[in-house]
């Protein structure tokens, strides 16, 4: 293909892309600033003040997303603190559009074989991200599986269902994990449960994509998760997710219309009632806006009620909230006050088993660390699960990559594969554990 043909092809794709949906439009004029030196305290204050979106997720952030509305103020704060910076992306909407076109043209070259429609969606897509509708098509069809029940735990603020998938251990009897003595056979054993949460942050598309793969795998493979009742919410923030497909690829929060503010949304991972408020933004424009009070949001209320219900039916052994990005496994607490958490060492050891297994699959490096050491944040589901529900193991898993939320679709399958291998080991260890609390 000659270069002009390539150019026309890319141009046409750009037109098609922008007509189909423009989920970059709300990022027009947003910039990425790269700080020339680390200054954790200043950056943390800018975040809490609702002025920047930090873009490094494996340590102190030196890349910041800055909007046209806040740029002047951010500049003043940085100047005052003596921090110099360069603008490395002039217009994020343009930047992401160009990258999207390149990605789409690459995807077009490979034959896309998978489909997911209302009449046929037998497996979650692994060659592309699924729309919220497609997730619902898949879950509806999954519900006919004998070991699975799919139900709604409540509605989002815009009225979408928040779905939970319960994968029942019955149907996998007779296949107890090796090493499990008859004394611990299922019938005699107290019901052990595991809770997985995906998609609480809208822009972290790899989270629901991987969480759906986990659901599919546990359902169709008795060797995984046997001995455990597994509950999974693959999409905890459906409104936010839809918004990332229509308006703003980098939207994080839910879609609450905040009264007396021009900014929408509450960070659903700062809205839980454990150390509520610490390290979260009180400003509606902040990416980590905590809301007007703990559990002010219908999404967190629905999750809380469902988790309490699951906890009352057995021993909730592990809670894992699946996020991106950073390739980290974080354990509680995220706020400084309550550390160390009970069973800190056990959480560390099980976490090491997880990351060591994950890292062998595709040679990635995931690390385990205390959440507060990454940065302080409270009011998270992980901390609530640990502090209030007393789940022995609670984690936040930050998936691939090490530098962006906008992960190419060809990373869905390998990310799912590595996490599945890690979870297999963890589930086996959990099923064998004698003392669950
Ligand atoms: O900030 C969050 O809610 C999580 N990271 S994300 O990039 N996915 O938004 C991490 C929460 C873990 N807790 C602490 N870092 N304290
Ligand atoms: Zn997140």
From TrEMBL:
Residues 128-430 form the Peptidase M14 domain. GO terms for molecular function: metallocarboxypeptidase activity; zinc ion binding. Residues 1-21 form the signal peptide. GO terms for cellular component: extracellular space. One of its GO terms (biological process) is proteolysis. It comes from the Eukaryota. The active site is at residue 398. SMART domains: Zn_pept (SM00631). Its cofactor is Zn(2+). Keywords: Carboxypeptidase, Hydrolase, Metal-binding, Metalloprotease, Protease, Signal, Zinc. InterPro entries: Peptidase_M14. The gene is Cpa1-L. The lineage of its organism: Eukaryota, Metazoa, Ecdysozoa, Arthropoda, Crustacea. Belongs to the peptidase M14 family. This is Carboxypeptidase A1-like.
């Amino acid at each position: 293909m000659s270069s002009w043909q390539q150019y026309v092809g890319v141009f046409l794709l750009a037109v098609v892309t922008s007509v189909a949906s423009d989920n970059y439009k709300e990022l027009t004029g947003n910039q990425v600033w790269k700080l020339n030196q680390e200054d954790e305290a200043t950056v943390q204050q800018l975040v809490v003040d609702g002025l920047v979106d930090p873009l490094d997720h494996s340590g102190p952030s030196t890349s910041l997303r800055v909007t046209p509305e806040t740029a002047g103020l951010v500049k003043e704060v940085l100047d005052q603190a003596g921090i110099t910076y360069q603008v490395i992306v002039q217009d994020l909407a343009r930047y992401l559009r160009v990258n999207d076109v390149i990605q789409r043209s690459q995807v077009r070259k490979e034959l896309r074989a998978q489909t997911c429609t209302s009449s046929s969606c037998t497996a979650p897509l692994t060659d592309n991200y699924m729309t919220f509708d497609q997730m619902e098509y898949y879950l509806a069809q999954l519900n006919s599986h004998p070991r699975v029940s799919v139900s709604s735990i409540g509605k989002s603020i815009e009225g979408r269902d928040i779905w939970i998938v319960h994968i029942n251990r019955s149907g996998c009897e007779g296949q107890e994990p090796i090493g499990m003595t008859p004394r611990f056979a299922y019938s005699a054993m107290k019901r052990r449960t595991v809770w997985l949460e995906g998609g609480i942050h809208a822009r972290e598309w790899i989270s629901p994509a991987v969480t759906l793969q986990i659901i599919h795998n546990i359902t169709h493979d008795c060797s995984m998760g046997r001995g455990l009742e597994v509950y999974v919410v693959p999409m905890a923030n459906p409104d936010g997710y839809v918004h990332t497909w229509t308006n703003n690829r980098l939207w994080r929060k839910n879609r609450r219309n905040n009264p007396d503010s021009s900014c929408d949304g509450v960070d659903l991972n700062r809205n839980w009632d454990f150390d509520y408020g610490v390290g979260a933004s009180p400003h509606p424009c902040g990416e980590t806006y905590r809301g007007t009070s703990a559990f002010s949001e219908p999404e967190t209320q629905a999750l809380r009620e469902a988790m309490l219900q699951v906890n009352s039916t057995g021993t909730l052994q592990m809670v894992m909230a699946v996020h991106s990005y950073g390739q980290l496994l974080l354990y509680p607490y995220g706020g400084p006050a309550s550390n160390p958490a009970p069973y800190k060492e056990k959480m560390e050891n099980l976490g090491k088993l997880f990351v060591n297994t994950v890292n062998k699959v595709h040679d990635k490096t995931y690390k385990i660390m205390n959440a507060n050491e990454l940065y302080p944040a409270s009011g998270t589901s992980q901390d609530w699960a640990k502090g209030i529900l007393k789940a022995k193991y609670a984690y936040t898993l930050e998936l691939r990559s090490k530098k962006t939320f906008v992960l190419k679709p060809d990373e869905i399958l390998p990310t799912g594969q590595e996490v599945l291998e890690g979870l297999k080991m963890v589930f086996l260890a959990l099923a064998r554990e004698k003392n669950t609390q």
